[in-house]
Amino acid sequence: MNTLVVLLLILFGGGIIAYFAYNIHKIVGDIWLVLVGFAASIYYIGYLDVSQVLNIHLAGFVLTLALNSFSWIFGLLIAVLLPLVALYSIPYMKGQDRLGWFYMLFLFSVGGMYGILMAGDWLTLFIFWEIMTWSSYLIVIYRRSEDAPRVGLKYLIFSAIGAYSLLTAIVLIGANVHSLSISKFFEVLPMHSLGFKVLVGSLMLIGFGVKAAVMPLHVWAPDAYSTTPMNYTSMFSGALSKMGIYGIGLIVINLYYHSGISLAGEIVAWFGAITAVLATYYALIQKDAKRLMAWSSVAQLGYIVAGLGIGTKLSVFAGIYLAVLHGLFKANLFMAIGAVERQAGTTNFSELRALIRKMPWTFFSALISVIVLAGIPPLSGFVGKWMLYESMITSGHYVIVVFLFLASVAGFLYAFRFLFGVFLGQEEKEFEHVKEANPFMTVPMLLIALFLIVLGTFPGIMFKYIARSMADLGFYGVTYKMSVLTNDWGQSINMQYIAASLVIVFVLFLIVLTWVAYKNSRNVTTKDIHTSGEPPSEEDNYHFSENFYRPFQRAFAFVYKYAITPVYNEFARGIEDFFQYVRRLYTGNAQTYALYVLLFLAILFLIAKNIH
Amino acid sequence: MNRAFNDRESQKILDIIKNFARKNSLFILAYGTGCGAIEIPPTITSRYDAERFGIRGAATPRQADVLLITGYLSVKTLKRVIRAYEQMQDPKYVMGFGSCTINGGMYWDSYNTIKQLDKYIPVDVYINGCMPRPEAVIAGFVKLQQLIQQGKALGWKHYKENLEWYRQNQQKVIKNWRMPDYNW
Amino acid sequence: MNIWNLLLSAIVTTLLGFIIGVTYMGIRRKIVALAQNRYGPPIYQNFLDILKFWSKESNIYHGVMHHLAPLWMIAMAITILLIVPTQYGSKFFENLSFNGDLILILYLMPFGQLGMALGVGQTGNPNSAIGVTRGLSLLVGSEIPFIMALIAVMIQYHTTSVTDLVRIQQEHHTWIMFSSPFAFLAALCVLPAMFHAGPYEVIIAPAELASGPMSEFGGKYLGTMMSAGSIFMFAKLTLFVDVFMGGSTNWLWLIVKTFTVYLFVIAVGIIMPRLRTEQAIRRLWGWPLVFAILAFIQVALF
What we know:
The complex is a heterotrimer. Chain B has one domain (18-173): Rossmann fold. In chain B, 43% of the residues lie in helices and 11% in strands. Chain B is an alpha/beta fold. Chain C contains 13 helices and 1 strand. Chain C starts with a helix and ends with a helix.
């Protein structure tokens, strides 16, 4: 039997059975969910035959299922996340109702993602794209909170815009190329006119850009990411958004660079860079951990789009690397936020404080993820950032790289905001009862964190797969080393030496400092601080959480003045006014309708006469 | 190796080096308790330049070595002084400014100032006068440096050993003793 | 590369960096004192300060991150010092200079700052956290013109490695400050902000924030932090000299060059009054950014 079909069957069939399993008992459902998660993951990594192709003839169309190395790496990301998220979900979703419904949609959306990656033709891609969109939409509105309908509607509208432009592009392809096969399309593409290429490319980029949350199509993302239950958000932001990246990678590399319109790629890169900067600026003024990380997702996806848009060997390499990495660390961060939400009951920065002593493991994994996010050496985030910047500098894109640097430096601000707001600061009596999250929640997080640490010194572990996938994008002869990174000018850095130097000095001084000081060391509470001699009472709390970056906001007030949402709202209001006006056509009078019919026929007659 | 460190001679040499560093690097806690605080700016600025002796202001008790009680000390301020003193890290020194800290000075019959400072916190050096001029303050610092070099400025140890006695005295004066127990 | 040789040279470089850095700090205090018509402390004063902090007997900490905070700083400072080439052409002092480049150095700097920010955050002192947010905000101001200047240099000489830049300057007997003056000016303008000195000391404003991030650090923590700060300062000066002033072939010449640059920082610090954070950001994004853009234009045209 075809292994691709088996994988899809595991996920879709597993989803349907999960619905009934949860209706029997929660424990049965949980066991089933974890089983499905691990089965799909192990099957994907161990048993999947990449060379297999399946053609289904259906109503005159040929639906093709085939994996290649480029899509395989995104599938690997899902395969890594799925069992961990499944484990995490057991304690996280405790006490929620309609679990069967939730997990059915959950597995459907994962199946949809695999379907997209396996799609060998545009129609299959579109079908699975819609399955993924609809199941994720239903999960967004799963929690019956106050603003869920509004958020869901926003997500649905933007997804619909994306889907329609994707469909239009597919119809155009079908009409002009007479085949819906993806590989064939890219083969015959150079023969077509420039206008066709640009039109199809732009429509597809709008379609994929919605999921990748590229500005100005990002509006849904911060709301949807923060409203959804966190266990799904970690898949949503970690894996589902990568489907947009997958599509953008296909389009930008195959359609733009291999058929000679690299300018279009540059424009895509600019969209990515501006997304990165603006989303970072919005992330650092957020008052809620979820929303902060949601904006941060938008920003990080901007980097990836910029990397793919530049289209050099190293930048695409960096783009794919960052995409996989973002999937891991952002999933981890959303899991950590979910753990905090579950244990402390809130994710609001003005209420949360000093959970570090209560939730040390969650803090540790969040810290590692944040270091990776900020791209600080010696962890894996830096490897991706280094390759991205060097590829841009060596290929002469020095204005884009300044924008990305700006986004990255401002990224330190929200990284600290998040860690400080949730885990550090002055301890509060209200959170004294808070305990570390369930091991089912912390262990998946720690596993990802551990992997991120190892990947920093030995990024070659992942380079192997990325180098293989680059061949599918038309970049042949990609070389890599275990921990030496080299740019196009021949300069290289060795992560092993850097990590060794940092770790040796750190540990050496840690031993010295602890040895010298431990005898007279005294651990004091966070109330015992310099307050000009005034002893704070038990009720006082001097935690700093309001107006965190006020001076920064003042300095960059011009950035915060503009937003895209009011523009969309204005547009929607305009449409509404327009249709209010149109509505008056329906007078209810039969004679008026008869007049319309007559007018219509007259116009039709005139047109028909003029055409010949 | 271990014996070499515990050896008396080497310990003595180590102490001499330590005390030399301590005496030549005195960070004073910028906490003006009374009118004597006005004498600190001239002491540390151009005219008298206390930085020659390594004396310099520190912003918080954690970084500071010397606590200056500049003049009269009201009961209300005493509470804050105690907290600031206890937040400082050992070894720490206290200097009493002016006659107010010695015997109450012109506030000898005031109802809300303390009369004798070393009943509440250990004082290493008193500077006489009302007010002591910057020269006198610097002379006091030099005296403190001598004491440190000789290893005699041990007020902080005395405070630790006789904590109960100090606490009794402190609580006798401060009626609303609501110091947090996480303080010490 | 022989590992023992590397270890030995690393220890020697670190010690030299420490001694020079701390002496520079002392000289700075002396110069500031002279400018204020005082005698000032002896130039070895900072050694005594560090020794005194290390000989403090009690040790107060607020938690694990607080205990680790100065270690991040010192690991970062020493690693940067090892990556920055101190001696051109010296086999012994090669250290890690062939294993890192400019982008790595730029990204290593936040390693220490983040670590310290975490420790600072755990103390629970609001002043410290305010200081950290100011520092991070200022980082956005200073980093962008500096990075633009460095990118201009990188593109002009087709290398991202500091060692290569030094080699090019030494072989051509020129300094980049003459061949790309706008990049040099941009970097020079933001240099005081990189040192948190001069008008950009709002982060540690002692009278206002109680020395900001450091306010809960005392004793051995502060001692380690001061040592790390000194080494870091010398590493930054060496980086600047390497990139713009031709590096050096011996320690004496390096000291002369770095001290000249440091003198500029001190002078600016003495003359200029402190700026508020947003003023500082605006100032850093004013002329330095103009110079950086001019540097880009220079690269694009020539």
